[in-house]
Amino acid sequence: MRQRKHGQMAILIAGILGVLVLAARADSEQPAPLAQQVGRPSKVEMLTRCQQRPACLAKLQAAQRDQRPAIPRPMPQAQSAVSVYLTPQIWKVLSPNTDVALHGVLYAGGSYIFRQDYRLLQDASSEQKPFVTMNFTAPASAYYIINVRASNAAAKLRHQQGGPIIEEWAFGSAPCSAGICDYVTIEYLQQGAHKFYFYSRTHEYTFYSASIESYP
Predict the structure, then answer these.
(1) How many other β-carbons are positioned within 10 Å of the β-carbon of residue 18?
(2) What would the pLDDT profile of 24-49 be if each residue is shown by its tens digit?
(3) Which of 39, 92, 137, 209 has an alpha carbon 20 to 30 Å from 197's alpha carbon atom?
(4) Is 75 domain-assigned?
């Protein structure tokens, strides 16, 4: 009798574990949301996400203290608020002049996917990997919040063609919710044209949107 009870208990435990494994597997196999299903991040949300990463938090604190990079300071300018939101469908705005472009992207089932087996030999700025570019004309020399919304990946953000990497995220280090991650940074930009390259050297990822907001 005791052996029968132990056997029934073992079967029950195995059944529970099986249900948990199936549930976890089903959750991990949930398809990535479509681009049109992912909303626009608010400025408050981007700043909150920024504070969750030490590198971005340090830049935010420098912006709050107005500790600008060691570059010639321009004459004071009247700064108008900037709020730009770009997607694969809304890829360009005119005020201020800003656009986003996807290079080496695979469109499948409503998603814009960057795969690691696709190489762009001619572009060293993305280390020959598929990439997103953002062209932005800063109306004034000021701090700006720059955010790329995508799925989880180890990623880099380069400023200007052949320029420096200004931010880098290890896999899992970008703040995420329901598989949607915000790769956010705060940068002091001089008035004029800027180009940003967002890419991953090691992971496939889905791109959703790019945002630029003036700070504060």
Answers:
(1) 10
(2) 333 334 566 766 678 999 999 999 99
(3) 39
(4) no
